[in-house]
Amino acid sequence: MNLQKLKDIKDFSLLIIPSHQGIQTKSHRLGIMKLLLYLSAYTLFIFIIISLLLIVTPAGNIFLMRDDASIKEQNKKALLLNKKVLLLTRELQSISSANKRLKLAIAMGDSDLAKTIRLSAQSKPQKDNPLGGNLFAVIEKMFSQNSFFSAGNHGKKEIFFLKPVGNAFISRGFDAKKGHMGIDFAVRTGTAIVAAASGYVAFSGYTAEDGYMMILVHTDGYITVYKHCSGLTKKVRDRVLQGETIALSGNTGLATTGPHLHFEIWKEGQVIDPKDLLIN
Q: Out of 98, 148, 161, 215, which could bridge 203 as a Cys pair, Cβ 3.0 to 4.6 Å?
């Protein structure tokens, strides 16, 4: 009998009684289907809110009893990612600094700046052995002091360039049209690189494209460039003598496919094929 009465019920009346006097009592009639729809929507809303709280907040670790090992692994990954970001930031700062120094080195090709470097170097006290143990420099000085060898061209000393590496063959020649502004010497990593001519160090550092590289400023507006080195033995503003070791060959930088030395010669902003100026 009671079950039959429940089946006959189709509508519910919701009575709202205010706590303050003077406010009219309100009643709302709800159908059974509408009531079930409201209850379902309310239940779904509460379920979504609780799920989000368990997933996003640390409360999920307590109620869901997550594995401590997985949490530690996630923390390790987060720390590793943070270290990589810091390392990348430092690399970008280093590249930016190298680019600034490289621009300064290119500007030092100007004769006025080169004179400034020479004057500042001449003001420093000379070492007991100015030739620095360079046998070629000793021979060059001996010949230059001989009036028979130095009388040509009205006493003006002509600049000439030596091969920057010894027994090495040219693996790639000069081709300015294709963007290869110098010549490549195929040498093993660690081979000594010497100054092609006497001058001053305008740049000595690392760049992402060319690796460890050095730029020397010479007389008559000449500049020589040595790229992809594995190590550099001179720093900016150092005076170097022709034939003196300035670096070690290598395979550094993005623009390299194997151990070699990339060598360039520039004069007053114009690139020159080094083979036209190098002597044997």
A: 215
